[in-house]
Amino acid sequence: MSKILYISSEAFPLVKTGGLGDVAGSLPDALLKKSQDVRLLLPAYPEVLSKIKKSKTRTLSSYYNQSVKIIETRLPGSNLIVWLVDCPAAFNRPGGPYIDNHGNEWHDNALRFAIFCHAAVDISLDKFQLEWQPDIVHCNDWQSGLVPALLSLYPKRPSTVFTIHNLAYQGLFDWQTFTDLHLPNELWNMNGLEFHNQLSFIKGGLAYADKITTVSPSYANEILQAEYGYGLHGLLESRREHLSGIINGIDEKYWNPGTDNYLTQKYNKRSLDKKSLNKIQLQEKLLLPVDDATPMMGMVSRLVEQKGLDIILQSLSTLLTMPMQIVILGTGETHYELQLSEWTQQYPDKLKVIIGYDEPLAHRIEAASDIYLMPSMFEPCGLNQLYSLRYGNLPIVTRVGGLADTVTDASEKNIENGSANGFVLKEKSSAALLTAVKRALDLYEKPTIWRQLQLNAMGGDFSWKSSAESYISLYQQALKKL
Asked: I want to staple 145 with a disulfide (CB 3.0 to 4.6 A). Which of 8, 201, 356, 408 is the partner?
């Protein structure tokens, strides 16, 4: 049994902006159930504090002349102990974890997450005397990237693991910020935190962690290439022997069509005929023509370039002539939101776009849709295709990252051998997307084949079980390094 301090800037159901929140809310609990001794460390945002019931203050400290206390609580619905870094000056403000109400990054993000990282380091070194010290410190994304770097300066320290959820977000700040944060000078070099004369939080994890993981095996290979490496492929190549990819799991209690309380009609593989009742309910709610025989294509996504919005918009005029309805839920870049909203005004009976994020509606779209749209330009792992598979909602994806690892194209050969569970674009283009959608609609007209594809999709193992075991194995390797 290992003692694991799992560090994240978000964790569902306390706070979530994306896939990291889902992972941090479910992987530590899966490790706990495999007899690991786990603590989850999070910033104490107002949203988090509003959702906790019982708590106690464990310790007080100060960083950058700001008082900090550690609050102990439990993750709702779990026995997992959560430690919250409560620093009102850094975290007690309206808006999101990283951006304000106007969509701008907080001007002091470097300071905010430096405070978070310093608290993590002090817990890791038992400076707070919490009667618990980790063997493994598992950091995630740039917000906790300074932790492995700072711990590297101590001869007696826990082993460190750093997980890249999305290399596009690196936590880059100017050199003056490095100075203002009083970070140790020995960390400022091209093999350390310096990146083209900027301070890179994520390099703290990539350069100093004992083991580096990404959230799918394919993405671990892709980030060694210039196209996906965002200038860090050389560093990652030099650390290749310590880099691996472990596919994300999903919380199968929360994403389960058989028990999902958000659904009008629960269903499973044996009662798949009931799935269409969710479509009828959603059609009524969104004022679409009600017909359970009309195929529905759903999308729940950040509306950003990464998610394939450009090829979707290039394809829309043709997609809207096809015999189907399209439902999109998401928020993101304003120009994508505006263009999609204009299309939905022109085609109110074919396209519904809901700008924003609505957790119950996300579940209902998964259950109502027959086809799921996810033509990402890159996708470290992707969780929505896993939710879709679980709900018998066949994904249309590009052959990148975790999408390549989890979706098997419905080619004749794969249909015959029983492995097909979705549709894979031959290239990242609107022409390839239209071809894939047409293939999907053609097979939708063949109920026997379509039903088998749905059963293949729903029969996959999307749990954290095997992934949690892979992490435990990785922790053992990291412990041997020290």
From this structure: 201
